[in-house]
Amino acid sequence: MAAGSWDNSWTAWSFSPTISAILVTFLISLLSPLLFHYFLYRKAAPKQLPTILLLGPSGGGKTTLLTSVRQKHHPSLVEHLLTEDRLQFSNGEPSVTHTSQAPQTALCQLPTDYKSFEDRFRSENDTSSRHQPKFLILDTPGHGKLRHHAISSLKTSTALKGLIFVVDSAAVSSAAGLTEAAEYLHDVLLLLQKKHTQGKTSKTDAMPVLLAANKQDVFTSLPTGLVRTKLEDEITKVRLTRSKGLMDSGVGMEDDVGGVDEEQNWLGEFGSVKFKFAQMEEHGVEVKVAGGNVKGDGNDAGRVDEWWTWVGDNL
After folding, report:
1. What 3-state class would DSSP assign to 191?
2. Between 20 and 30 A from 41 (CA), which of 23, 90, 179, 237?
3. Which of 81, 117, 91, 86 is nearest to 101 (CA)?
């Protein structure tokens, strides 16, 4: 009875219009959400910086892209490089790069010249400060034996905001260069397609892809539109060859398993005669093709504005 009497008296006091009861009630209502937020914050995983993945065949210009943004034009872009001393600036000019043997990461901040996703609808007359987010650029080796680094990043990274697939616009004019780029791009897009199909939600697994047609300033380079067309045509051939290889191997030919495997390993619209990048939109992958050149001519800077605009749109 004593305990019940104490509970009743405490309840009566807490609802009484006294100053002490009001203060205690106010403090409880103020501190409870703060303590609850503090508890959840300590339990939450640390926030990861958004990441843009650089990939493509060797010699396309991926590593040069990290070092060619001249400090005098974009002082806020390259904050510091986390790996490999050879990727340093000398008098504002990128140093000579070599074929990458391991992934390398650069911590960057979107320059004020470009808008982030949050500011894409901001009026040009709005003079308030813009949101210039920081992000990571992960450059992966393009050599065939080292592409597992890019594939591993695609499978395991939870902070990817987009992929930049860099191709040499001059190299794809040759049969060998075109086939190499198409086979690599086919495998990357197919992996993204499978992730989207097997994912729990389409929004979580959606992934924008920029096909960066580099070296547009080279005399032998193909125009951006022709680079797109040739890659689509070559991926059509790769897709047919890979599909025929699965059928010839006899994998999953019993019951209906063969049909399922063939559809899962078919890039784009299943059964379509010709592959188009637009087919990837159904699988949560939006492919944009944009031309540019990383290296400038003489004292002129390279032309990569479309690429960085795309980066800003996806941050």
Report:
1. helix
2. 23
3. 86
Mean pLDDT for 158-185 is 94
Strand 207-214, strand 89-90: pairing: unpaired
* Mean residue pLDDT across the chain: 76
Q: What stretch(es) of the chain map to CATH 3.40.50.300? A: 51-120+130-313
pLDDT at 193 exceeding the cut of 60: yes
Q: Is the pTM of this model over 0.90?
A: no
Please tell me the distance from the alpha carbon of residue 135 to that of residue 116, in angstroms, as a whole number.
11
Are 195 and 241 in contact by the 8 Å Cβ rule? The answer is no
In this structure, of 56-65, 86-95, 167-176, the range with the lowest mean pLDDT score is 86-95
CATH fourth-level superfamily of 51-120+130-313: P-loop containing nucleotide triphosphate hydrolases (3.40.50.300)
pLDDT of residue 73: 39
DSSP SS3 for 174: coil
With contact defined as beta carbons under 8 Å apart, do 72 and 226 qualify?
A: no
Tokens representing 41 are 């914050």
Q: Residue 162 — φ and ψ, nearest 5°?
A: 175, 165
Read off the tokens for 315: 């941050």
**CB < 8 Å & 24+ apart, contacts of 87-91:** 87/63
Residue 311 belongs to what H/E stretch?
helix 305-313
- Residue 303, classed as helix, strand or coil, is strand
- Please give the full DSSP string across 103-172, using - where no structure is assigned: -EEEEEE--TTS--GGGTT--TT--SPP---EEEEEE---SGGGTHHHHHHHHH-S-EEEEEEEEETTGG
Burial of 102 (0-12, 13-18, 19+ CB in 10 A): exposed
- 185 and 210 Cβ atoms separated by less than 8 Å: no
Q: Residue 174 and residue 17: Cα distance in Å, rounded?
A: 87
